[in-house]
Amino acid sequence: GAGVSQSPSNKVTEKGKDVELRCDPISGHTALYWYRQRLGQGLEFLIYFQGNSAPDKSGLPSDRFSAERTGESVSTLTIQRTQQEDSAVYLCASSLVVSQPDTQYFGPGTRLTVL
Amino acid sequence: AQKITQTQPGMFVQEKEAVTLDCTYDTSDQSYGLFWYKQPSSGEMIFLIYQGSYDEQNATEGRYSLNFQKARKSANLVISASQLGDSAMYFCAMRGLNAGKSTFGDGTTLTVKP
Question: Which residues partner with B24 through β-bridges?
Fold first, then answer.
């Protein structure tokens, strides 16, 4: 079946503009995660959704970042008033449930460049 | 809080030889899972292997095995019979039981030489 998809694959924006990144999880996966990966570094957790439970937003770096998910489908990560330090690859992952063993399947990422 | 440490920024291995990538972790959770992912230059994250904290046996998946030493809080990845296609960045990660948040290390770049 289809894997996790993300759009756009690349986004170039000007400082101060808002951007929306989209993630389509694998069908039937109840859990969805967003991560940020700066160049040459590991992944930073941003936010995770599990079914209808309140999302874990503990990784969002500032109030300029927000994310939504409708049910168990698409999620949108929004970055308002982008800054140059927001430049990174934003990775989305989904998993069947949040329990062990639990494998997260990653999308190809959105490369964000803030000029 | 959880922390993953990968002390080898870069590693080289000769084709067909085995290589060990180091990973140590710190957590106050009693139950947790440890994961290894491969990230080729294309950027995709590929799940390799999983070890549960209460698993008594080391996990194995084909050429990958995880050398889990709970008392030392280490979860090293062993790749046997290295192939040129194994050249990539490798990340160690952990999560608590029923927790969504995963903590990743900074990664190790593995280069397989022909």
Answer: B5, B74
Interchain proximity A41–B101, CB inside 8 Å: no
Torsion of CA A70, A71, A75, A77, to 10 degrees: 60
Nearest chain A residue to B90 by CA distance is A42
Sign of CA dihedral A55, A56, A59, A64: positive
Whether A114 and A11 have beta carbons less than 8 Å apart is answered as no
Chain A: nearest CA to B100, how far in angstroms?
6
- Residue identified by tokens 């969805």 is A32
| Tens-place pLDDT, residues A31-71 | 899 999 998 888 999 999 988 888 999 999 999 999 999 87
What is d(CA B48, CA A103) in angstroms, rounded to the nearest whole number? 10
Which residue of B33, B44, B100 is in closest CB contact with A48?
Answer: B100
| A108 CA: distance to closest CA in chain B (Å) | 5
Q: If we measure between CA atoms, which residue out of B32, B78, B76 comes closest to residue A102?
A: B32
Neighboring chain A residues of B10 at a CB cutoff of 8 Å: none
Summarised one tens digit per residue, pLDDT across range B38-62 is 999 988 899 999 999 988 899 999 9
